[in-house]
């Protein structure tokens, strides 16, 4: 099969790779209908995370089940499925509490890489969710979004306790942040403030439900949120970047007693203990338990109640995966979709 491999920072190649096969009786092999480049893929691409030899890339995926192991019961060949970036059994005590990304049997969701023609999915019964029939092609981008960025933005909004009567601020205008705006709006927030300096992302944020746009960052951005909230700050803040500046901005934009839902993959974030102690702010987040939300999100996409696939503003054939990485790295694209 053909698959994307990261050899070194800035060096993505689409190569011939071994076809994945069933290795455990709980595995499935799927033929990918679509995959994409994640913001977290850019950390090793930029050299911020170490690249230890050639690495198959991709963890967001939708496709058709090709083959299942002997112990798989909930999905079968021919079904269109959506999975999560972590594989989980969905039966352990942690999974039953809704934190499948911390499953006691947690594994990479697509260890063979999802930016490819085929992928092996471990723990298929707990990881994959079938759609109601074969979806129309125009729904595929939205279902792909559900496998990570929509589920992550949704978890961030839930962790921040977005809902009716709340003002929600969103730090980060990448795909996760924009879908955090959509999630907060869907969850009934009265007001959604999006931090964004980019006109195209501001426009999409408004289409997803943002009521206010704040182009400033850092303490200046915090001051603007306070000005919009009678000096109190937002009830709920989504942090969707993962840097020191973005985390402090999120905490400082939150009113006492409010909640921060943080889902940006943290890099060198160090929180000042005294400031955190006196902030009175709740912090909750980490790798999103996408599997918890998949049935609901698949239904919302398939019934066309939401259209999260609009975050994909660049679609390329798999063979041009390197251009997808370049476009996102250079901020020429919000998110690149790859078609095998």
Automatic annotation (TrEMBL):
Listed cofactors: Zn(2+)
Pfam families on file: ADH_N (PF08240), ADH_zinc_N (PF00107)
Transmembrane segments: none
Gene3D superfamilies recorded: Medium-chain alcohol dehydrogenases, catalytic domain, NAD(P)-binding Rossmann-like Domain
Keywords, ordered alphabetically: Metal-binding, Oxidoreductase, Zinc
PANTHER family attached to this UniProt entry: DEHYDROGENASE, ZINC-CONTAINING, PUTATIVE (AFU_ORTHOLOGUE AFUA_2G02810)-RELATED, ZINC-TYPE ALCOHOL DEHYDROGENASE-LIKE
Protein name: Threonine dehydrogenase
